[in-house]
Each structure stands twice: as C-alpha cells, then as structure tokens.
Amino acid sequence: MAKKQELQNNSWEYAPSLESTSHISIQKKYDLYIDGKWVKPSSGKYFKTINPANEEVLAEVADANEKDIDKAVKAARKAYTNVWSKMTGAERAKYIYRLARMMQEKARELAVIETLDAGKTIRESRDVDVPLACNHFFYYAGWADKLEYAFPNRNVEPVGVAGQIIPWNFPLLMAAWKLAPALATGNTVVLKPAETTPLTALKLAEIIDEAGFPPGVINIVTGYGDTGAALVNHADVDKIAFTGSTAVGKLIQQATAGSGKKLTLELGGKSANIIFDDAPIDQAVEGIVNGIFFNQGHVCCAGSRLFVQENVADLVIRKLKQRMESLYVGNPLDKNTDIGAINSKKQLETIEQYIQIGKAEGAEIFQPTCAIPSKGFYCPPTLFLDVAQSNVIVQEEIFGPVLTIQTFRTVDEVIQKANNTPYGLAAGVWTDKGSRIFNLTTKLRAGVVWANTYNKFDPTSPFGGYKESGYGREGGLHGLRPYVRLK
Ligand code: NAI
Ligand code: MG
C-alpha cells in the first residue's frame, strides 16, 4: 500500500518549466501617471512592492496623498470637459481598440509581471487574467458608438469623473473591468491599484501613453488605503467604483452617502458549490479544485462552501483528497504550478488565523502532504470536514485555499443552507438534470450561478452580488449602466 501511494505521488513529478522573465521591463521606481505625464508624489514618498513568491523587492512605487489626488482629479475633469465627453463614440472606440490590441501584443510581458507582483500562477495570468482583460476592452470599445441602442429612446450622457479603486487578486483584470465601460461611455478616470500589486496598472499606464490617449483621460495613482479614501472624499468626483473587502466597502458607502456621488461596490463572498448525486463526479471534483484552490482562493466568488449530497459524499471526498495530493504548490512562474503564492504576509496571516479557528471549532482538517518553498508566502490546499452552519469558517470569507464541506439530502435543504450567509456573489450547481439547474438558479440568492462549471467569465456577461456582496453590475450591457446618466 505504501509502495502504491509512493508510485502514485511520483507519477506527478514534473520537471520544472519556468516562464522566462528576460523579456519584461520593470522600472526601479514609478511616479504617478497624471495628465499624460509621470509626476513625482508631492510627499516625495515611495513604497516597495515585492514578489510574494520569494519576498524580493520588485520596484518602488509613489505614495500619493490628497494633493496628488487633487491634481489627478483636476486633470480628469479638464480632459472630460474639453476632450473626452465631446468626442464621438466612434472616435473613443478607436482609442480603446488600440489599447486592447497593444495589450495583446504585450500579453506575455503583462502576464509575467502580474505573476511576479501578485504571486498568482503564470498559468492563470497567461490564460485567464490577461486575455480576459484585453477582451473587456474589445467588448466595451464595441459599445462606444452604439449607446443609443444599449438604451433605446433615451439620451445617454456620461457621468463625469470616475474614481476607481481595485484590489490585488486580479490586478490587471480589475483595472480593465473598471476602465473599459467608463471610457466607452465618455467618462474620464482616476484609478488606484492595490498597494501590493501596482505593477500591471503602471505597465498599463505606459501602454495608455503609447496609445496616445488625450492627457488626463486616464490617470493612475498608487498608494495605500488613505490614498483610496482621498479619492473617495474628493468633492469633484462624480462616481466611485470599488472592489475589495466588505469592511472598506461599508466605509465608502458611509463616506459617499448624501454626496450625490454614484457608487458601485463589488465586495466579498462565501459562495456555495453544490454537488448532486447525479453529477459527473470527476468533472465536479475538478470544478471544486478550480473553484477554490486555483488562484490560492483569492477569488471573491470562490466556491468556498462545498455542499455534497449525502449518498455521494464519501466518494466525492475521497476523490477530492486524492486530487489535492496531486496539486503543486510553489513557484508561480512554473507552468506546472497549481497553487502559487499568497498575495501578502498579511493575507497569509489572516488565512492561518482562520485555519486555527477551524481547528478550535472542532472541524476535521485535511491537508495533503505537499512540499512548500521555505521563502515566500504559501498555504497548502485545506479541507474542513464535519463543519456546522454556525461555524466561523463557514460564515466568514477566508480568501485563501480553504474549503468547508457540508452534506445535504434534499433540494430545499441545500437551498436554505446555501442562502444562509450574509453574502450572495456566486454559486455552482453540479447535476445532470436541467430542470434542477433552473430550479436552483431562480432560488439561490447569488449574482452568478454556474451550472456544471465554475469561475468562468466572459465580458458579455454581467457580474455582481446580492446582500453584503455589494451592488451594481460589471460586465455586459449591465456594466454600462453605472457610467451613464439617462435622460
Ligand atoms: P481592502 O478592501 O483594504 O483593499 C482593496 C482596495 O481598497 C485597495 O486598493 C486598498 O488600498 C483600498 N482601500 C483600503 N482602505 C480604503 C479606504 N478606507 N478607502 C478607500 N480605499 C481603500 O482589502 P484587503 O485589506 O487587501 O483585504 C482584506 C480582505 O478583503 C481579504 O481577506 C478578502 O476577504 C477581501 N477582499 C475581497 C476582494 C474582492 O475581490 N471582493 C479583493 C480583495 C480583498
Ligand atoms: Mg507585489
């Protein structure tokens, strides 16, 4: 038996296959991209962004304060009034298409920089983040001259200057989600990337510059939470779009209340992945792994709560554990790696705290016997069995590769359990029965419900949450709505 186990493990040993970093260029120091120029932060302060896979410093990045934000908002206002809002949709589209094409040309460089700065696997940044980011720009460029068809019989006007604050889990993709619909509808933007992952947004600023956008249409300012707060509180911003933690989302909601600023929030999740006994079990197991373990569980819509129908629970759990034994945790630049680095030390500590809480709550823990690099921030894929609905690890967002498993017998029971959460971002349903899928898609209180798949995205399809997962939709025709005033 021991021998057999050893053979099984050995069969997963691949030779390392590292993506090259020789073709990328990262500057040592980045200033702020304001009004089409690189300007020094008024405080003179810079902070470091590191590679979480090995803790090495990648670059120094400007720390913007209120004065810098004011400069950026003024530049955005001027560009809005004098240029961008006056341009025809067809003209705006040309710029956005050009940006999308130039990003495609630099796709490999963007993917490698994303992996270095964020710790996510090259497989994901190369195959998911970068192509989807390009597709978002292509898709919304297509709407720019067709807004009267998007909103028939209405006069469509832009909102004005948009302040956009994004997180670290999909840095370039979130920038694209935010920028593309805003630009297509004639708004100008001040974008703030997350402090641990500013490099692809800064690379994007270089591409925007090369693409010849009129100065001030897109401004990219880096900094921490106080930089984001300065943007939220600036009196001349017309709209705030935020993706990140529910706690900060609530602060922003309070800060903008009564200000007349439009607001969209895309916050956390605790999404249910539901496996029925008639599901294709092997595909479902792969869907579970894709739903929570790939991208280190750093996905707002991660399938972090697994519900398995009781009569197949043993089988599913056995197959899942087996699959977890074969997952590679390690260097995100290695094309074989399934689970890369946790984005930051702070996030790793949060995840480890939740793992301790889970153990203290009496849940049974399973982690495969995988090797983990000694430097950098890593967490093995983790299962919690025998959990109860009231457990902290079942209720709260962990944002790491940690999965809780519960069983159910009936459809009504699983709907109740799945909906019993403060969140409502996404859900997955695995079954052979189409009628059951449609029944669940109408009853699950989640913005997206995937059937027999998980974590699939497309620019044409809207995304967003119920309850504490936020409000407003991004993607698709719905994604235009927050950026227009209809008359
Ligand atoms: P965070 O919400 O603090 O950071 C997201 C962005 O907001 C960053 O750009 C940050 O600089 C900015 N920010 C922070 N405080 C702000 C403020 N007061 N006003 C304006 N902007 C502000 O998230 P954090 O601390 O990095 O992660 C904590 C938890 O949030 C994670 O464990 C996870 O549960 C959740 N999260 C959810 C994400 C999602 O996609 N829904 C993405 C990232 C984190
Ligand atoms: Mg970094």
Task: Write a structural description.
This protein has 487 residues and is of the alpha/beta class. The protein has two domains: 29-267 and 469-486, Aldehyde Dehydrogenase, Chain A, domain 1; 272-458, 3-Layer(aba) Sandwich (Aldehyde Dehydrogenase, Chain A, domain 2), CATH 3.40.309. The protein has 16 helices and 20 strands. It has helices spanning 2-10, 66-84, 89-105, 107-118, 122-143, 147-150, 171-184, 199-210, 225-233, 246-256, 281-292, 310-325, 345-360, 392-395, 411-419, 434-443, and strands at residues 29-30, 32-34, 37-39, 46-51, 56-62, 156-158, 161-165, 188-192, 218-220, 239-243, 262-266, 272-275, 305-309, 364-366, 382-385, 402-408, 426-430, 448-451, 470-471, 484-486. A seven-stranded mixed sheet has the order 14-15-16-13-12-17-18, with helices on both faces. Strand 15, helix 14 (392-395) and strand 16 (402-408) form a beta-alpha-beta unit. The chain is globular and about 65 Å long. The N and C termini lie far apart (72 Å). The model is unreliable at 1-8 (pLDDT under 50). Bound molecules: 1,4-dihydronicotinamide adenine dinucleotide (NAI) and magnesium ion. 1,4-dihydronicotinamide adenine dinucleotide (NAI) binds next to helix 9, helix 10 and helix 13.
